[in-house]
Amino acid sequence: MFDDADQERRRELRWEQKRRRLGSLRPVCAICFRSDVAGLLLRALNQHHLGRRRASAMTVGVCRHDHAASDDLQYDWPAALRDPQKPVHRDAALLRGIADFIRVRARCDQELLGRMVTPEMVRSRANTDEQLANEIQRIAHTLAGEPMTGTDKPEDA
Hints:
Layout: H1 4-22, E1 45-49, E2 59-63, H2 64-74, H3 79-82, H4 87-113, H5 119-144
Antiparallel strand pairs: 1-2
């Protein structure tokens, strides 16, 4: 059997190997801030293309759960943003992706912080994030020359 010190040393070595495979000493999801090294898989963090691959090479490291949620939002984008052909549409897609990122992050903040702060503090932060995301989304649609209709409209519009 291993003594406590030996077991701790083996755990640290195992975690260090995981960190190397992930390419970071402190791997963390950009949305939910999950960083539990013990629970990380070989590729626990995915690189999410904020404006879809066709629009931008800009990525953020997110956990699989938040990557799936963020990707799902992109399917609701107007066609000009889902498959941008013009530079202005690529810029608009990136802005829409940033707006969606802020929105997903705000929802996560509500879940995480709701247990630690007053509900009013959480509502205030969420409202500010939602307003920012709505404005960025409006600019993206204006750049793309696409009206905001149906599922494209922000919830409070």
